[in-house]
Amino acid sequence: MSVRLSERAPRTTRHPIAGTGGRTAAIFLTPFFALFLVAMVAPVAYAIGMSLFAERRSGLGFGGTETEFVGLGNYLDVLSSETFIAGFGRLALYCLLYIPALLGVALLFALLLDAAVAKAKRAFQLLLFLPHAVPGVIAALIWAYLYTPGVSPFVSALDSGGIQIDFLSVHMVLPSMVNIAVWEWAGYNMIILFTALQAVPREVLEAARVDGAGEIRTALSIKTPLIAPSLGIALLFTVIGSLQLFTEPKILSSVTTAVTSTWVPNMWAYDAAFNRNNLPQAAAASIILALVAGLLSWIVTRFTSKGRA
Hints:
- This protein is mostly helical.
- The chain has helices spanning 20-51, 73-79, 82-115, 118-133, 136-147, 153-160, 173-198, 202-210, 215-226, 228-243, 247-252, 265-274, 279-308; strands at 53-57, 65-69.
- It has a two-stranded antiparallel ribbon.
- Strand 1 (53-57) and strand 2 form a beta hairpin.
- The model has no long low-confidence stretch (mean pLDDT 88).
């Protein structure tokens, strides 16, 4: 038996129950916030609490240890340490060399890839990103071998050509570390910038070519300004990563006396915790470094946002 269209029952529209969207979002976000509290907030809070106390020995050093509240005493001791301040000076010099070199190399590679033949893009993109796939410790060990006289084929080749360079000397060890870090991280930042270049409107580039702009002029005057936000993100990541310098000097300290156990702030904190068994001072040094990283991140964010405005 056929049913006319007008006789069919009207459709009922189902409306979502109020509040279900918020509950669903809360269910999915709960694991993230739980992990964030356990892995990030709790360790930071524990470090701050530890940095406010110190262990004292009674009985002229022969008695047991007592934990005393010292407030900001550990922070004052860390900031009054000449080796800690000297480590910050080396870190600042490292940043001045490393950040421009890394971003310049990454931008150059990204622009070259964007202008390359389509068939060669994927191959060169993989080759340039490959060093980033090597763990930092392994990369530092490889370059430590390449820097060591007597065992490095690279140093031997330079010596045979009459060029004598001690990459592990006091004056050259910092540029040597910069070279390791640039070799390892240039491919990562290149991918960020190259991805941004792919989003540049092709009609803008075609208009520039019609106006007579060459490849270099187009890259500098059109492509680079259009990917300024991505450059800002890369700069932010690079600044934060620079302040975490530890692996390269730690590995090179085993092959040269130019790098001491307190060469940078992270190594100072490591030495305080595991060599001098002074965990409160190590915690204070870590909090100071975290505050410096937060301040510099805020400055970079403000600077890049003003540039976009």
